[in-house]
Automatic annotation (TrEMBL):
Biased composition (Low complexity): 1-28
Taxonomy of the source species: Eukaryota, Viridiplantae, Streptophyta, Embryophyta, Tracheophyta
Annotated Gene Ontology cellular component terms: membrane
InterPro entries per the UniProt record, alphabetical: Leu-rich_rpt (IPR001611), LRR_dom_sf (IPR032675), Malectin-like_Carb-bd_dom (IPR024788)
Segments for region (Disordered): 1-29
Subcellular location: Membrane
Protein name (record): Predicted protein
Length: 323
């Protein structure tokens, strides 16, 4: 997907350790939702080597920022500032100042300097469940040097060879900024390569301060919407339904209750959209429990022994289609 910057309209859960998946309780990372989680592969504090980890209290979420262990002093120059780097108003994408005060740039005379590029790569390991892992990357920038008048630092970004930035990017002086892909990258076997290339108008080489890299895992077996579960339990009890209704109504998909269809949106729990209990031998009045299925589109109660009138609440269901 195209990159987003928190300075523009942007459309995720903070792992406490490299092994833990994201949880929906965190205010960060919009890529994580009710049906997919992010598992941390790497969280690097670039531009500093051999230093202590950065974590709480510098990072209020106690994310652990690890000094980059792959710094080649012949290839990369470490640059830094003693000045505090300001956060953006959008706190979903902010690395702590202690991380953003350092960065890497191509060292003069290196191959990267000759090509005016920075190339970094990460790999998410395939496994039996995810033979082609889906990956999410977040890269952080802040200008830590004083750019003299007439000088400019401007670069374009590419992911796996495909241009990622819609326009050349210039880091702001001592202000944290971040770019991320809002949708997972697929089809590269879990490989994620970032290329930052200076534009023809740039007099300075590109820099990068920090990066996070995640693999995406499905949480598609999220439980059915609670209100739908309560409504179905009440219907089952009231009419002593003889169907084999047990467990969660909509999950797993292979065991959806007989007579139900469900919707599976990316950002919310499954909802019941169709209920067919025709020829069910049901007796008595039509209860308002049916009206508590707020996402229902098709409701078939035919060929039962119902008595009385149809509740007005059924006519108020927003998606119900008359049969």
């Amino acid at each position: 997907g195209s990159p987003r910057s928190p300075r523009s309209p942007a459309s995720s859960w903070s792992p406490r350790s490299p092994a833990s998946p994201c949880s929906p309780a965190s205010p960060r990372y919009p890529q994580a939702n009710a049906t997919q989680a992010l598992v941390l592969v790497d969280r690097s504090n670039l531009g500093i080597s051999g230093a202590a980890l950065v974590r709480y209290p510098e990072d209020p979420y106690d994310h652990v920022w690890i000094p980059w262990s792959e710094i080649d002093s012949n290839e990369w120059a470490e640059i830094s500032t003693p000045e505090k780097v300001k956060e953006l108003a959008d706190l979903r994408f902010n690395a702590p100042s202690a991380v953003m005060q350092t960065a890497i740039a191509p060292r003069n005379g290196s191959r990267s300097a000759s090509s005016r590029t920075i190339q970094l790569s990460w790999d998410a390991a395939p496994n039996h469940a995810y033979p082609d892992p889906e990956v999410i990357g977040i890269v952080y920038f802040a200008e830590v040097e004083v750019v003299a008048g007439g000088a400019a630092r401007q670069f374009e970004m590419a992911i796996n060879g495909k241009l990622w930035s819609k326009a050349p990017f210039t880091p702001q002086h001592l202000i944290c900024d971040a770019f991320f892909n809002s949708e997972a990258h697929r089809g590269f076997g879990g490989h994620y390569n970032i290329t930052l290339k200076a534009t023809a108008n740039s007099t300075l080489l590109p820099t990068i301060n920090a990066a996070e890299f995640f693999s995406v895992v499905s949480t598609a077996n999220v439980a059915t919407d609670t209100k739908d579960v309560v409504a179905m339990a009440a219907i089952k009890a009231k009419y002593e339904v003889k169907k084999n209704w047990a467990g969660d109504p909509c999950t797993p998909k292979t065991l959806v209750w007989e007579g139900l269809n469900c919707s599976y949106a990316m950002s919310m729990p499954p909802r019941i959209t169709r209920l067919n209990i025709s020829f069910g031998g049901l007796r008595g009045s039509i209860q308002s429990h049916f009206a508590n299925l707020k996402a229902i589109k098709y409701l078939d109660l035919s060929y039962n022994n119902f008595t009385g009138s149809i509740p007005n609440a059924l006519s108020e269901l927003p998606f119900l289609v008359p049969l």
